[in-house]
Each structure stands twice: as C-alpha cells, then as structure tokens.
Amino acid sequence: MSSEERNRDPDAAPAGGEAPGGEVACLRFEPPEDREALGRAWQDHLAPIFDVSFRPETDLTVPIAMRSYHLGDLLVGDVVAPAHTLVRTREMIGQQGLDHILLQFYRRGQSRVETDQGTGPVNEVQCIVFDLAQPVRIVAGAVDATNVVIPRALLEKQGCHPDALHGRPLDHDGDPFGRLVHNFVANVVACGDLLDRREALAASTAITQLCASWLRGQEEGRPAQHQDVRIRVRRLVEAELGNPKLTPALIATRLGLSRSTLYRLFAPNGIVAYIRDRRLMAAMRMLVRDDAPKPLRVSQVAFAVGFSDERTFRRAFKRRFGFIPSDASQRLDTGPEPAPGAVLRNWIESL
User: Where are the stretches annotated Disordered (predicted)?
Assistant: First the structure.
C-alpha cells in the first residue's frame, strides 16, 4: 500500500512499521501537485464538517496542513490553515445528522464566530466549542490549532452538556485546568504515530474525561431541547442498537414521525440500511478492541448489536467489510477505498 493510499484508508496503520496491537489510523491532508487545485482540495477535505470559502486576503501559497488520528472513540489532530470562512448550515445539519462536539484549541490566529446567540471574537490561546448540531459561521484568519471531535453521548455520560457553550471561546492558557487539557491533547497528537490501538483507547478515555470535567465548569444554561429530527433518530438508534425489535415502525412511533418522513430523512438507502450499518460498525469496534478480558465470541457480538441469529450477522458482516467476523482483529482493511474527501466523514460517523 502506498503512503497516499494509506492516508486515505481510515483503518490502515500509518507507515513506519507495526506497533503492538496495530497502529493508530492517521489521515493527512495531501496538497495536490497542481497548486491551482489546492483551494478545491482543501474545501473537499473539510466538506464533512464545514462549507469553506476563501477571502481576498487568503494566501494559498503558505503551508496548509491537517492531520487527524482515529483513537477509537474520538478523533484528535491539528491544523495549520490560511484565512478562510467556514459555515455550517441548518441544511447541512439536517442532511448529515452529526451529533458531535468539536473543540478547537487555538495556538496562533484569530477569528470571528457567529451563532444564533450572537457574534464574538476568538483569540490566540482560546478554545472554541462547536456543537455540530447547531449552525455557525466562522470568519478565520490564518490559524494553528489542536482539534478534538467527541460524540456528544460520551460527554453526556460524564454529566457534561455542552450545548449552551456553542460558539463560546474559553481561555485554555490562563485557566490552569484548561492548559492541562490542551497540553494533554496536543501531546497525544504529537505521539499519534507511535501509539498502538490499546494506548489510543486509553488516551481516548482520558481525553473524554478531561474535556468533560473542564467543560462542566464552563457550562451556562440548560441543554438544548430542540434537536434536529435526524439527530433524534440517530440517538434513538444508538440507544436501541441491541434491541432486535428496533424497526422503522418503532422509531416512527417513539418520535412521533410518519413513515414517509422517516424514509425521506435517510434517502436514498433508507432507515433499515442505516440501522444495519450502525450495528455492523458497532460490531467491528467490539471485535477489534483488545482491552477486553478475553476475546468475544462471534455469537456474543451478533446478539449484542441486535442480530437475532449468527448466520445472518456473518453474511451481513462479510458483505459490509469483505471478510468474516472472526478475521476482524487481523484484517483492518474495511473494503473498497473511499473516494477522496469521504474518509473524514466516514470516521466521524463511525464514532
């Protein structure tokens, strides 16, 4: 596998040899050889989270870099980017259904963040909290920052509800605990190519606990109750993943939706395909984790993710990933190489 192919493969180990238990997957932005195509490539890379546009003062001749590490439960990374404008619209939120929190710790640069609650500046040594279920517009200068993407559910399990912090800058340098959080995340990113999967999962747990503790001390108001309907469906699916009776009818009844609305939300593949894919992704995570006291039997995994029989699970798993469940811990290639720009989206959805 070439280095370019490795950077696009969400489950391939980075170049540099095998570490115990398999290395952490890393995705790097690869600038195209044609410098005229650089702007479009950068827009495509960030498209899973933001619509990107450039301003008259944008200098695309300066270095542009972004790396992301998939730690199993969350993503961490860093970015060096030119001046640009990033927008997350209600339409994007409705189409994607992402229920995640993005924390961006600025080391250099400034921006102006616009949300439904107002507009404010973000300066160096501040962290900005983005709730990906809420719209936002960011007018950013050239920045150097550390990033964390955490599923909201992981923070909520720690008693943290960061909804009301959306768009709000937090001082991560003047606040001693904030400085601790940023330094830890930045060090994990710096060591990303050296970690094995067991270490990555331990780091993921620590980052979640640190971020939740820090954000709990910054919370204002009550958690938002008005979630996009696709996000509400996704959260119900995740909560009921092990229920073999999870059907479109059950979801429609629980959330007060019509069947036609439910199917339209998950077009073109449909809600049934979405449920099955979430079950199979959950099964893959269970099979490749090496922190369990003893390996799980395939039948245990099948029933845990809502399949009523092992034979159906095995067929569905092989169709999705290209190999049988018992080979999952040795086979990290998840199938056909995704199209350019799709890897980051696949990673976020896999959390």
Answer: 1-24
Residue ranges and CATH numbers for the domains of the chain are 3-216 (2.60.120.10), 229-350 (1.10.10.60)
DSSP string of 68-96?
Answer: EEE-SS-EEEEEEE-SEEEEE-HHHHHHH
Q: How far, CA to CA in Å, does 113 sit from each of 35, 56, 120, 283?
A: 29, 19, 6, 38
How far is the C-alpha of 257 from the C-alpha of 231, rounded, in Å?
Answer: 13
Tell me how far apart the terminal alpha carbons of the chain are, to the nearest angstrom. 25
Q: What is the mean pLDDT of residues 239-248?
A: 92
pLDDT, tens digit, for every residue of 53-69?
Answer: 999 889 998 889 999 99
191-233 pLDDT per residue, tens: 999 998 889 999 999 999 999 999 998 875 444 555 678 888 9
> Looking at the predicted structure, is the pLDDT value of residue 349 above 50?
yes
| Burial class for 255, CB neighbours closer than 10 Å (0-12, 13-18, 19+) | middle
Rounded to whole angstroms, the Cα distance separating 99 from 68 reads: 19
How many residues can be counted in the chain?
351
Residue whose token pair is 């001046």: 83
Describe the strand order of the beta sheet including 84-88 as a list of residue ranges.
Answer: 51-53, 84-88, 136-140, 111-115, 118-122
* Residue 326 DSSP SS3: helix
> What is the DSSP secondary structure assignment for residue 221, as one 8-state letter?
S
Q: Residue 4 is which amino acid?
A: E
Whether residue 268 has a cis bond before it, omega within 30° of 0: yes
How far is Cα of residue 216 from the mean position of the Cα atoms in its chain? 21
Task: Tell me how far apart the alpha carbons of residues 205 and 162 are, in angstroms, rounded to a whole number.
Answer: 18
Q: Are the C-beta atoms of residues 107 and 144 closer than 8 Å to each other? A: yes
Asked if 155 and 137 count as a contact pair (C-beta separation under 8 A), the reply is no
Please state the pTM of the whole predicted model. 0.76
H helices of 131-175, where? 152-157
Radius of gyration of the chain measured on its C-alpha atoms: 20
- Of the candidates 202, 207, 158, the residue with the CA atom closest to the CA atom of residue 291: 202
pLDDT band at 337 (very low <50, low <70, confident <90, very high): low
